[in-house]
Every structure is written in C-alpha cells, then in structure tokens.
C-alpha cells in the first residue's frame, strides 16, 4: 500500500463520520502556497506541488471516490501577497486547505487569517514555534521543523560535543530571530555563551563582513540561523575563508539536501545540520524519493524535508477527510489529532492537541567527497533525537487546544 497507514481506530472511523459532514463543492481543493521563484524554490517550489500531487494520487479517493484538486501559488516571501492569495482561495475559489508556506512571516499571517474559518492550515514548512505557542489555532497542524526544535536540538547536539562558545549569523526576520533565541537559551543554560551575533537581510549575497566578524570572535561554533539561498551563500563564502579548516565548526540550523547539492559536497563537507527527513534513511524514504525524483520536472532531484512534509501532511489531511466525510477544519483537524503511529517518511509520529506533529530529529554531518558513493549520498548520521525530546513540551507552549 503506497500511502501512509493509519491506526485501526482511524480506519474503523471511515465508515462513520458526522451526520452533518460534507465535502464542499464535491471536491477537496488543496492549495500549495510557497516560494516558487525565490530563495526557497529548490527546497519547496514546484517540488512541493509534485509532492502534494503524489499524496492526492496515493490517497486515490480514500476508497470513497473523493475528488482532489491541487492548486498552487507563489507568495514571493511577502506576507501581504500570501495573505491576499489565501483570502481569495478562502472567499472565492473554494480551497479547503493550504499546505507548505515557507517564510514564518507569511505563515503567521495565514495562520491568523484562517483561524476559526473552514480552511485547514497544514504548516509543513512554516518554522515559527509561535504556531503552537502564542499564535496557536484550532485550524493549524505544524509538521517537520519549528524554531524551538531547530534551535534547541541543534544547540544541544553541538554543546554535547564540546561546542560551548557561539557566534551567530542570523537572517533579520522571524525565522532567524526565533532560532537564535531558542538556541541561545539552551546554550547559556548549559554552560556555554554567545560571543556575538550579526544580523543580515533576507536574500544577502555578500557575507564577507559577517564571516570575518565571526572568524575573529574565535567562537568554537558559528551558527547559521537562516535558510535557503542565504545559508548556501554563507557556507560557500565560509569555505573561501577557510573557516572550518581553521578549527571553527560551522552549523546550519535550517538546511536541506537540495541546498547541499546546490553548493556542492566539496564546499559543504564537514557542515553540521539538523533534519527531520533524509531520503536515504531507510527503504520507505528511498522508495518515496525515487518516485519523487521521477516526477515531471524533478529531473532526478531528491526531496527535501519540506517537500516530504507536504506529502505527509497532505495525505494525513485527506485521510481525515475520508474518515469524517468533511473537508471542514472543524471536522478534519480533530480527526488528524487522533493519529499516533508510524509515518513512512518521518518515523514514530504523534499529532498533539496543540497541532504540533512530533517525530524524531537527526543531526547529520555532510560527508567528504570521497565518502559519497552515489548521487545525493551526502549525509552521515551523527545522532538521533527521539520524538519525545525533539520538540517543545506541550506545557511550555501555552496552547492547550483540545478541539
């Protein structure tokens, strides 16, 4: 069976469903909203659209002949643009769920707009941990990463290996600030210190001055609290400065396999990074990745963790729609929160009542060129953070939603 397996209890509920449940317009429309032309186009972009289409195909009507339509749009990394698209989808075009949404500013805006509407927000790429904290919504499910997990688990893994003194290169918006804040809390409460931090705009091409400051700080660890093209540029220029060769560790808080491929393994070798998904982890992830790589326009590219998250969250939502007979968030989201079991792409998985999807996280090191045996064979596993340790405990999040 290609799609993810749900528990027997969930399978049994497929024959029931609320008496007043219904599928609006007799079709379930899912809107993939992301960055198609900017710095996140490789880790999300059209690859996320294909991942959503794969989920719809594997769902195959949920044994009930349910029709699924995938639409998509480019939010251009602008909250107002993303909000306008989402509002049109909600008010005019009959979209039932929005998935993906890299860029925390855009994601938080969408989260506010959809709160208490009929639409579900599958925030599979929105990293702000506020989604399960002060901005918690009964309409939102958050998959893959968040800033708490990224900041804490990465810092914990590095501190445990002797990385006590840190310098941060941080993108100057919600994502970067959130990661740095969470990491700093962990570092300082576990005997380390943050020597300094440099903030840079989104889409920075020249990191020379920031890297020179980090290098001159003599910090044991230089933390890159950014993503996409910003991280790629920073790593490339760090290699030119010989930062890792001089003994400083370079760690990327939010980096994906596509980014490593883009910069090349020779440049990225030795880089430490935290991921929720790696295509070459096991037979299930490899099978999914090979199907993804063969999709139109993918040209052999392996999926990122964000693209895997689009697939998993879309399929989970569709299974909930089949179980309840409704594509309304008030029915589908509580059904999703019943899930606890094995996800083929993310391992042992629980969807908590605050909407946080809990699964293991992994610290990887990028291999040396001579260690890589085949295309996209880039990571070696350093440590595994179990699901119950990888994410902020529910009590700390301030979100106690039951419905």
TrEMBL record:
Coiled coil: none annotated. GO terms for biological process: amino acid transport. The keyword Ribonucleoprotein does not apply. InterPro entries: BCAA_transport (IPR051010), Leu-bd (IPR028081), Peripla_BP_I (IPR028082). Keywords: Amino-acid transport, Signal, Transport. The keyword Transport applies. CDD domains: PBP1_SBP-like (cd06327). Belongs to the leucine-binding protein family. This is Amino acid/amide ABC transporter substrate-binding protein (HAAT family).
């Amino acid at each position: 069976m290609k799609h993810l397996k749900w528990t027997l209890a969930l399978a049994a509920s497929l024959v029931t469903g609320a008496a007043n449940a219904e599928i609006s317009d007799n079709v379930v429309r899912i809107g993939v909203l992301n960055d198609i032309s900017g710095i996140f186009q490789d880790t999300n972009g059209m690859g996320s659209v294909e991942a959503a289409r794969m989920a719809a195909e594997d769902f195959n009507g949920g044994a009930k002949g349910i029709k699924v339509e995938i639409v998509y749009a480019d939010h251009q990394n602008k909250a107002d643009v993303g909000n306008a698209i989402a509002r049109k989808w909600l008010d005019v075009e009959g979209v039932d769920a929005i998935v993906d949404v890299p860029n925390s500013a855009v994601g938080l805006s969408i989260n506010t707009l959809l709160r208490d509407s009929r639409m579900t927000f599958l925030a599979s790429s929105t990293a702000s941990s506020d989604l399960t904290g002060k901005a918690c919504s009964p309409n939102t499910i958050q998959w893959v990463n968040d800033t708490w997990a990224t900041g804490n688990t990465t810092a914990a893994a590095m501190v445990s290996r002797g990385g006590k003194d840190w310098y941060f290169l941080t993108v100057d918006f919600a994502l970067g600030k959130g990661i740095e804040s969470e990491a700093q809390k962990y570092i300082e409460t576990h005997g380390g210190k943050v020597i300094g931090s440099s903030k840079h705009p989104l889409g920075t091409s020249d990191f020379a001055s920031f890297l020179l400051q980090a290098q001159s700080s003599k910090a044991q660890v230089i933390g890159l609290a950014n993503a996409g093209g910003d991280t790629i540029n920073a790593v490339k220029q760090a290699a030119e400065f010989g930062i890792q060769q001089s003994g400083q560790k370079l760690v990327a808080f939010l980096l994906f396999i596509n980014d490593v491929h883009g910069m090349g393994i020779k440049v990225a070798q030795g880089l430490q990074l935290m991921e929720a998904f790696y295509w070459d982890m096991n037979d299930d992830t490899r099978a999914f990745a090979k199907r993804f790589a063969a999709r139109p326009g993918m040209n052999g590219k392996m999926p990122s963790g964000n693209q895997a998250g689009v697939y998993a969250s879309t399929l989970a939502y569709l299974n909930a729609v089949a179980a309840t007979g409704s594509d309304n968030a008030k029915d589908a989201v509580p059904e999703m929160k019943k899930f606890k079991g094995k996800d083929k792409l993310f391992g042992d998985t629980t969807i908590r009542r605050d909407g946080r999807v809990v699964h293991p996280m992994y610290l990887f090191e990028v291999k040396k060129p001579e260690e890589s045996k085949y295309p996209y064979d880039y990571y070696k596993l350093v440590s595994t953070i179990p699901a119950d340790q990888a994410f902020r405990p529910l009590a700390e999040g301030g979100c106690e939603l039951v419905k």
